[in-house]
Structures are given as C-alpha cells and as structure tokens.
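Private note to self, pasted from the team thread so I don't lose it. Backbone tokens:
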C-alpha cells in the first residue's frame, strides 16, 4: 500500500510539473491595439511549424474574424501543412465558394483602382515634367533699323530714301518660350509685334504712290520740315535654337531677374505679316507743328521672312534680324532688304 501511494505521488508531481512548465511565447503586434501570440510548449513543435502554410491559415482566420466568429477553426491543424490536400469544413465554419468569389472580386477591384491611380499619377507627373521643360518670359527688342539696296547702303549713292541711323528705331514686344531640348541646347520660340521706323535723312522726303508703284521725291512745299518717316508694323513668329553654356531653364533678361553668367548664342528663322503701314511728316506752319499721317499699303510686301541671330551674356541678349525678301513688291519700288539690330531686354 505504501509503495503504491509513493508511485501515485511521483506521477502526480511529474504531471503537475509539466503543466506548470512555462511556454515560450512570440508576440506580433497588429495595428495599435491587437496582437497575435504564438505559445510554444515543446521546442519539437518548431519543426512542425516550418511546414505550415501560414498564408492559408491567416486567410481563414481573417475570414472568421470578419464574421465575428470566435470559435476555433474546425479543420484539423494538419490541413495547413504544405503539400497536403485540405478538406472542406462545414458551411458555418468555412467560407463558401461564393464568399471566396466575392473576396477575389473585391481584391481585383482594389488592384484595378490602385493601378489606375498609379497610372493617373504617373501621367500627371509626366505632364508636369513636360511643362517644366518650357518656361515663358516677356522680352522687348530695342534697336535701330535700316535697309540695303543690292548689298549697299542707299547713302553710298546719296539716294533720297537714305535712312537716318539715329531716330530710325526698331521696337518689338515678344512673348518668348524657352524649351529645353538637351543639357545646354534650347529652342526659343516667340510671337509678338514689331515696328520698323525708317526715318529719312532728308526731312522733306515724300513717298508717293500711283498705279505703277511708289516713288520717293522731295516735298516742294516751302515749310520747314522736322521729320519724315515710313513705319511698317508686323506680327511675327520666330524659332531660334540656342546653345546656353550655363544651362538656364529661363531666357535671361533684365526684367526676368535671371542674370546668367553663361554665354549663349543661336540663330534661326522668323516670319512676319504686315498689319499696318503709314508715312508721317512733321513740319512748321506759322510757328505750330503740323503732323500729316497717311495709312496705306504703299506696295509693301505683306510677308517678311528672314534670319535672326542672338548672342548674350548675363541679363542681356543682342539680336540681329535680316529680311531675306524685299521690303516692296518686285517692280513696285526700290529693291530694299530691311534689317535691324539692338538689345533684348
């Protein structure tokens, strides 16, 4: 009897000791207030865990939590071992095929939304990147203008339509876009309005028009003349490839605040369309200035086209424009090729 009692006490002590043995635990925090706990009582079970399909286990666990089902998973634990065939649980414990189809549809919709949002963001980023390649500025060309006749200045032959260098102002107002084509290579394309002001050396120069064309002569009136000029107004488009050794995104200018230290240069074509032309004479009548202004096409070519050259440093560009076609229609006036040069502000 005593021997049996001792054996029972030893067995009870062993079982109690095993029950009181502290398990190893791993805690995984989920969000702010949730956690998943793994309690390992026997380290031999770690070998079994290596063969578990935790993705499948977690999917089924999340499904039960979505249904607010706190019961244990009804399928055997061996069903989550890799390379094994899972059996179907009861419909109360296991998601139906309709449930799975709904989950897949929701996943597909989310993936489509995420993909569409990503594509849209990429497209917007691409458009922003493209827009950043082009910068706008407002520029003013100020200089002087003249013309050549058969490659020579009319002043060389003492022609009556010789232009006075001082006072023959060329002015242009341009909206300029600078587009980067390469590291230091840009295209400056612009649109604007320009004014040719040909102020004649002889203040009594008179421009007369008839059916055969235009002629220049001296006004025979005895008044004291102060000014005689021809003004032609054009709207223009230009495209000038530029090399800017400083690599500026914006066109430098006095009004842009971009005073680059780099040197830049370029040349390209331009074209213009005449929108107005007139002559202006200012003379004295009994001590008062009288102004005569006559608006007329004067057989001027409606189209002008030519080459524009630019070079600059810091905030100022210098320009030179040369019209490759004649100022007047062929056979209706002298063969004059206009040009202008000055600075761009």
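Design output:
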């Amino acid at each position: 009897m005593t021997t049996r009692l001792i054996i029972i006490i030893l067995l009870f002590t062993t079982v109690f000791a095993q029950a009181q043995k502290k398990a190893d635990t791993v805690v995984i925090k989920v969000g702010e207030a949730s956690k998943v706990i793994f309690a390992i009582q026997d380290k031999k079970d770690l070998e079994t865990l290596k063969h578990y399909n935790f993705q499948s286990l977690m999917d089924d666990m999340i499904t039960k939590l979505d249904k607010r089902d706190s019961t244990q998973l009804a399928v055997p634990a061996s069903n989550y071992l890799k390379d094994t065939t899972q059996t179907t649980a009861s419909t109360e414990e296991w998601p139906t095929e309709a449930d799975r189809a709904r989950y897949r549809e929701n996943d597909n919709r989310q993936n489509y939304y995420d993909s569409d949002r990503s594509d849209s963001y990429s497209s917007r980023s691409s458009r922003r990147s493209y827009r950043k390649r082009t910068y706008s500025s407002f520029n003013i060309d100020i200089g002087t203008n003249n013309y050549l006749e058969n490659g020579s200045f009319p002043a060389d032959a003492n022609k009556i339509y010789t232009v006075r260098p001082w006072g023959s102002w060329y002015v242009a107002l341009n909206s300029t876009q600078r587009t980067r084509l390469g590291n230091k290579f840009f295209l400056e394309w612009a649109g604007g309005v320009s004014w040719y002001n040909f102020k004649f050396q002889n203040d009594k120069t008179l421009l007369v028009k008839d059916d055969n064309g235009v002629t220049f002569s001296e006004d025979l009136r005895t008044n004291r003349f102060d000014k005689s000029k021809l003004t032609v107004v054009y709207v223009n488009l230009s495209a000038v490839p530029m090399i800017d050794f400083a690599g500026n995104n914006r066109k430098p200018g006095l009004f842009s605040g971009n005073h680059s230290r780099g040197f830049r240069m370029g040349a390209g074509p331009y074209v213009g369309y005449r929108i107005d032309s007139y002559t202006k004479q200012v003379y004295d009548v009994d001590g008062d200035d009288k102004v005569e202004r006559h608006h007329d096409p004067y057989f001027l070519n409606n189209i002008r086209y030519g080459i524009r050259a630019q070079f600059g440093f810091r905030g100022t560009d210098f320009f030179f424009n040369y019209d490759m076609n004649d100022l007047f229609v062929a056979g209706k006036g002298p063969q004059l090729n206009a040009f202008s040069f000055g600075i761009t502000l």
